[in-house]
Amino acid sequence: MLHFSPEEKAELLDLARKTIMSKLEGYANYESTKNPRFLENRGVFVTLEKNGELRGCIGNIESLNSIWQGIIDNAQAAAFEDPRFLPIQQEELNDLKIEISVLTKPEATNPEHIKPGVDGVVIRLGENKSTYLPQVWDHFKIKEDFLESLCVKAGLPENAWKDPKAQLFTYQVEKFRE
Question: Is the model's pLDDT at 29 over the cut of 70?
């Protein structure tokens, strides 16, 4: 893990908020960074909550680009492109809380090695694929329920995680929030 300093976390959270604000106000805010740690390629998720409820969450499991660019892209996508929600409106901005998750590289695993509360999990079977961040474990008491829900999220039958052709991957995150 990278283990960002409190100042670095604040800078990345500020970047996410400024990205959303700039889109709402109709201008592009694509600052650059001089911090080499932010230029490392990593998977990044941006989660938005409003009054303690999910309001948007978009990210990349694989490192498509730098942490910095991933936050810009995924903050904008979580706020305006998450298909589960209407786009964020200006009047909601002050009620939003932003959480950022920076991922380790996913590694192949099997169900016995998945650590509840620690591992994010990816399932892939055929063309279907989905993930849950480690934070999602808070909603499940047992591993089987977590895996079944993940399968359904991927558009698969509940027990697809038991299919010998199913691929499971785990990753960890460094998460921080406003």
Answer: no
Distance, CA of 155 to CA of 127 (rounded, Å): 10
- Please give the CATH topology (third level) of the domain spanning 107-172: Dna Ligase; domain 1 (3.30.1490)
**Residue 131, C-beta contacts closer than 8 angstroms, at least 6 positions apart:** 61, 120, 121, 122, 123, 150
**First-last CA distance in the chain:** 20
**What 3-state DSSP class applies to 35?**
coil
pLDDT digits over 47-88, tens only? 999 999 999 999 999 888 899 999 999 999 999 999 999 999
| Partners of residue 129 on adjacent β-strands | 124
Indicate the Cα dihedral angle 111, 152, 61, 141, nearest 10°.
-50
Strands (E), the chain: 44-50, 53-60, 96-103, 107-109, 120-125, 128-132, 167-171, 173-177
pTM for the model:
0.90
Q: In the CATH hierarchy, which fold is given to the domain comprising 6-103?
A: Glycoprotein, Type 4 Pilin (3.30.700)
For residue 148, how many other CB atoms are within 10 A of its CB?
Answer: 19
